[in-house]
């Protein structure tokens, strides 16, 4: 049961890593086949021998020929998406899942993970940036994914042709939008997602439910376009589909029907489906869509009867890896075991690693990403207003509540505590204000990154740099706004420029922590739930509620991870300088007590700055690693 994917880690017979051969090998059309593909889910998240497992796919097989459009059909939960994900290299063996089988590309055994870059994969969820237009999305994909041999002029032409072909000309300059922001329609969004992949003229295209959520006309139009592209570009296209109408079903050349117990019921030309069911004792009633009939039989007749009737014993038996369908729709046997000669089977091979094939240079990736990031930022006016409006409102409020608290540098302990308290609260507010936008936005943006990264559009470093290049000036402006609102009202006495700089450092570090958290969780709701876990410890180590010296020694190490603590150390040293503390012996005593309680030392100023920089860079680096790790198992 615990066998690994048989072809994992293998190279093609030529010794070339198949994940890096996008155009050279596949340009003349791709024959893609698979056999004995099994997938099971272990119930206890372990592969121990006694672990119960659920079989999702059992020795699935199929063959796709160049220039054909194939559908994967089956009842809900029959494993359509799982099969597509496995073939596209988006799912690998893990503690919870076991996958085995053989995948052949042009008769050479490949590891689907390494082969990822050769597959244009259109996800069920569109995963497009909401503040981009269809034309910009296609241009972004074409510019970064088509090699330097294609000139920018040709890329523009391809984009225009694709927009035309997909019927997106009228909405090419409308924002994509999302559930909350009105943009192009659902069908247009789906076609844009398809265009983003097809503009690179891939040989192999997989689509997960391209028609879901579309009305019947939009669905028909979508499938018709796919068929046209398969013919014109000699592309090999495979799509999972839910309950297609007769008109849509007839557009497909071939169909693979998944049935019960993870088994393949039928794999062959669309016209052969009724015949297969009739031969096994389930004749198609007149005027009934063969795909509806197939699903109806699978869902309603007793499973044992289905197996007893030989419904799953195809003419193209498993040993041969399934049937093969030529362009004219006729069946042709291809013995896959024979075809796989040259791709040795090594169960001990290391799991495949996806190394994206990047066509564009580092600077080109950075330039395009930066351009998009800037555009998305200024187009998302609501977020900008919320961010800066919130900062200004809150800090004016602090300023009014703590009005002149910073000017009372006398020996009075109450006044001193107000002065210290105002600085602490403004700093806490700065931490939340700079981290929240990233914490709430990044989980929503992450699927776009994962899709683009896994299709080799760009690498992680230009992505993180481009985000930083836009975020850093925004954080600086936010810090400046905050300081302007509080500094003069409260009457802080430290250096204004140093205040802004330290708040900015805090913003950079908090932003990194937020991005790191956004990499761990799946959605905005979970990110919001994670907020206390990230920020409450920061408050505990800030020295405001409890002095650092009062925290148990074995817990004090955690302060090293708290940017708030070092920001406060710096700000207290800037604010409670010689002018403030030296005003009277009482003021000096208060300052000394404050610094001693929180273990703050003037000689360590550069050390505190260094820690903040390390937190900023360290969490950013960790976020990058988490993102790469995610992209291995999730799209
Ligand atoms: N990683 C996983 N862990 C646990 N269960 C899984 C996993 N992947 C797939 N499954 C299960 O496998 C079954 C098939 O899922 P899959 O999404 O492939 O079905 P489907 O045919 O595409 O369904 P639908 O048509 O409803 O989208 C489901 O019961 C699903 O819960």
From TrEMBL:
Subcellular location as annotated: Membrane
Record key words, sorted: ATP-binding, Membrane, Nucleotide-binding, Transmembrane, Transmembrane helix, Transport
Molecular functions (GO terms): ABC-type transporter activity; ATP binding; ATP hydrolysis activity
Regions that span the bilayer: 384-403, 423-442, 496-521, 533-555, 605-628
SUPFAM superfamilies according to UniProt: P-loop containing nucleoside triphosphate hydrolases
Major localisation: membrane
Domain of life: Eukaryota
Name of the molecule in the record: ABC transporter domain-containing protein
Membrane topology of the entry: Multi-pass membrane protein
Organism for this UniProt entry: Triparma laevis f. longispina
